[in-house]
Amino acid sequence: MTLTIGQVFVSGKPSVYTRMKPRILLTNDDGITSTGLWAAYNALSPFAEVTVVAPATQQSAVGRSISIFEPIRANRVVMNGVTAYSVGGKPTDAVIIGLFALRLNPDLVVSGINIGENLSFESVMTSGTVGAALEASNQGVPALAFSLQVEDQGDKFDEPSGITRRFSDAKRVVREVCGRVLETGFPENAHVINVNIPAVVRGGYEVTRLAAKLFHTGVEERFDPRGRPYYWIDGPLYEDAEEGTDVHAVQQGNISITPITLDCTAFAAVGELQCIFDGLTVRREEIHL
Ligand code: MN
Questions:
Q1: Distance 158 CA to ligand 1 centre (A)
Q2: DSSP states of 73-130 as a string?
Q3: How many angstroms separate the alpha carbon of residue 154 from the centre of ligand 1?
Q4: Which CATH superfamily is domain 3-211+239-269 in?
Q5: Least confident of 58-72, 78-92, 149-163
Q6: Distance from the CA of 225 to the center of ligand 1, in angstroms?
């Protein structure tokens, strides 16, 4: 734990005080070389003790998958003059290594800044950026995911160390949102805060709900040199999102903040499911016997 020694002036007399810097574990899914990750590092390091534990390679869209059939290596590397941990695995593996092997005991886990938006439950459920945050939260650490919209969807597939976009708005958002959460606390009924920054910010923050979809999913069929078909999953973006959703907010140029919960139980369906299985299910009274 780093102690920041400062001076506070009380009634004109200086007295020494100590303040603990919050500890942040920073990860992502674009890999440790991503300019988005280091933009987040630069935004957070002035006020927090930040440890980078990130996948060694591009891991976008792996969701919350976890390496349980392979050993995981965590190499200490120096990048941009900072000691960091490069994990040969998934974003979730990086979080688990940070918490259980490196024992970082962070106050917050931050995942991002992802190159590309993570909007709608279609994306949130496959996003490695959000997956890392979900893992952290399930392990009891408040977590936030940050993603930056790309105007050209092709940018998501470029080498993330070569993305030279301007991160100034995204850095400000990381600083403001994490600062606010550290100061005011994490919402009690949320597990993860999912933040999406438009490519061009035209408005302010908007608390949103997840839209259902971000893409009109499709497949493109091609043929290999032997005449056999193969497929690329692809599709254009939705353009008619409902007001109040994360997709709509970002389309309007607002910064979307969505509270996410880990508990996927469809509570509204419990009664109906009991009716469907009437006579087959164990009665609640019996469970509690
Ligand atoms: Mn990514």
A1: 11
A2: -EEEEEETTEEEEEESS-HHHHHHIIIIIS----SEEEEEEEES---HHHHHTT-HHH
A3: 12
A4: Survival protein SurE-like phosphatase/nucleotidase (3.40.1210.10)
A5: 149-163
A6: 31
Q: How far is the CA of 76 from the centre of ligand 1 (A)?
A: 22
Is residue 7 scored above 80 in pLDDT? Answer: no
Task: Please state, in angstroms and as integers, the Cα–Cα distance from residue 215 to each residue in 12, 156, 206, following that order.
Answer: 61, 14, 21
C-alpha triplet 177, 49, 118: angle, nearest 5° = 40
| The model's pTM | 0.89
The CA-CA-CA angle for residues 214, 256, 161, to 5°, reads 75
State the distance from the centre of ligand 1 to the C-alpha of 16, rounded, in angstroms: 44
CA of 118 to the centre of ligand 1 (A): 9
How far apart CA 165 and CA 253 sit, in angstroms, is 17
Ligand 1 centre distance from Cα of residue 41 (Å): 16
Query: Cα of 87 to ligand 1 centre, how many Å?
Result: 16
Rounded distance from Cα 43 to ligand 1 centre (Å) = 19
Query: pLDDT digits over 19-38, tens only?
Result: 589 999 999 999 999 999 99
Cα gap 116→156, rounded to integer Å: 6
Can you spell out the DSSP letters for 161-198? GG-----HHHHHHHHHHHHHHHHH---TT-SEEEEEE-
224 CA to middle of ligand 1, Å? 28
Residue 68: CB atoms within 10 A of its CB come to 7
Position 37, amino acid:
L
Which band of pLDDT confidence, cut at 50, 70 and 90, is reported for residue 3?
A: very low
Q: In the structure, what pLDDT confidence band is assigned to residue 162 with cuts at 50, 70 and 90?
A: confident
For residues 7-21, give the mean pLDDT: 49
Q: Which two tokens stand for residue 231?
A: 């497929």
Which amino acid, residue 242? E
